[in-house]
Every structure is written in structure tokens, then in C-alpha cells.
Amino acid sequence: MDTSPSHLAHIGTTHGRLRGWNLAVFLPPLAGVGAALVAADARTWWEAAVLALGVVAALVVLERWTAGDTSRVVLPCLIVTAAVWPFGVLVADSHRAFYGMTIVVPFFVARLPRHRGAVTAGLAAFVAAVGAAKLLESPDDVPGVLLRYVLVPTVIVVVTTCLMFANRRFYEIIEEAREREAELAVYRERVRFAGDLHDIQGHTLHVVKLKIALAEKLLRRDTGRVEEELREVYALVSDTIAQTKQLAYAQRRLNLSVELENAKNLFEAAGIRVRVNREAAVDERVDGLLGQVLRETTTNILRHAQATRVRITLSRSGITIVNDGAPDAPLPELGGLATLKERVGDSGGELTVEMENGRFVTAAEFAHLGAAAPRSSARKDDDR
Question: For residues 186 and 179, what is the distance between their CA atoms, to the nearest angstrom?
């Protein structure tokens, strides 16, 4: 989790904007409705003051909700709104005095760790019982009292509480989806890191194996060449250590030109003839990714093929590597190239591998980058 000051400041700014938006959207209309209900039902100033307490308590809870913490105020405000309701029924003759409870009850129930259904039923029973007490004053209007003081208030309180449950569950589902996506992103990053680590260390180990084998052959014939090979092995291992550190700090980026020169040197050391066709300058947006393709293919050729010739063709939008000496067998599993195939695909390109008549072809192409550069950049071949 990023806890840098800039990230925390960004989170604080986002929460501040969200709170301001919630206040602007919910507070004014709910306050306006509450004021209108108080004005319609209150017959004296002191009745208006008591009824207004229920509205104020509801608005306090709402304001604390926008700030992200209702724990300190929700219970006191529930007590206030619950007290205003019997006052409205028995004193102020207000069948709308339950308004504050429709706002506070859902927030109170939502904070409970368990028994939410039972608490909701209990509060609904309280609203209905207080409303039914109006029958003591108006025994001649049973249908009207039951409708205005019992049925409507109870249904509205229950419905708003259930809507809060649904709303809360909706956000829980969104949060679960975000957590799963975060876990998936971590998994993908681990796979990418493992692939990069394989590219670096797997490639180096195979090259070191090749050079040590060459040095062993030359041990009694050319000690000067043996020393040179061992120095190159030492330099290669040192470079690999440095690249591994860069990878750990997310600073590594392959360079196609460097990889091309490295591939030619390795193929030459293995007695493989290399030809490089440069049709155009490679687009810098895919330079590093094509460098990875070349490095992985070079490693595969040195490990699995009995190659004598390799041809590398570079265009503005891709690279093609062709080698002979492929085994007469079904196409093997791609291994490291499978990971690269996904990366190339994620970047809008396509990586293909073909094996036929002893030739192995590896090609990465980014068609959306267009054709090669203008013919003014003449085709150049390097033949070694």
C-alpha cells in the first residue's frame, strides 16, 4: 500500500471532494423537506422547536456520514428522533414527526455488527405502537389513524432501512471487486517480475555455460583466449547482478540495439553465422519489448537448436528472427516466449512462432504502428 505523502494527500483531496458532493446533493433537499414538514405541522413556536429537533438530529447524522464517521452521534440522535415521534403524535398532532427517524434509523441499524433484522423489527414496532397510541385521542377515526400514524410511518421507516441494507451491500460488492482486482494486479506483477527475472538470469546462465565450455576447449591451446572468455564471463555476471538490482527497483528497460549487438556476439562465439536486415528504424515505443523478444529467442536458439545460420530482420513495427537447425519434431512449448506473447498482445501487437522444414521463425509485429519509414532510410544489411 502506498503511504507516501503525495498519495495520502491525493486520498485526502478525493475524500474531501466526495464529502462536499454528498453534502451538496443530500443535505439541502432533506433539510428543506424537514423545514417544510415542521412548518406545516407546528401550531406554536415551541411545537416547532421540538419538531425541529428531530430534523436537526437527522441532519447531524447525515453530516457525520459524509465525514465518514457516525459512531459518536448516531445513538444520541436516534434517541432524540425517537422522542420527537411520540411528542408529534400525542402533543403536536403531527403524523409526519417520524421524519427524523427515517434518516437516523437506517444509519443506526447499518452500524450494528449483528441482529440487524431484529433491531429493525423492534424499531418498526415502536413506530407503529406510538402511532397506534393516537387512537386514545381519536377513537372515532380508526381507519385514518391507522393509515396516517401507523401504516405509513412504519412502512417508510422499514423501507428506508432496507434500502440502506441494499446500498451497503452494493458498496460491499464494489469493494470486494476492487480487492479482487488488486489481488489480480499483484499476481500479474509477480508473473511479470518472474518473467523478467527469467529473461535476465536464464539468459546469462546459458551464455556463461557456453563461454565456460569454450574456455575449457581452449584451455591447452590458447590461454590468452581463455582469459578473455573468463573476463567476459565475469563482466556478464556483474552486469546481470546490476540488472537484477534494477529490476528489483523497477528501473530496468532493455535496449534493442544493445540486445542486437549482444546476440550477434553470442552467435559468433557459438560458431553461428548472423545476418541482420534493417528495413527501418524501430519505433521507440516498442524498442524495449522487441529487445526482450530478441533476448529470449537468442537464449532459445543457443539452448535448443543446432543452428548454423540466423537472420534477424528489423522493421519500424516489428522483428523477425529465423534460424536453421530446428529439430524435426512438433512445435515445443513456448516457455518464456509464452509470457512475451501476452506482453506483446497487451501492447497491441502479435507474437508468432512457426517451425517448418528445419527452420524456426519467431516474429513480433505491431501493425498499428504502420509500415516502415520512408524509403529515404535505405535498407541496411549487416552480414557477419
Answer: 11
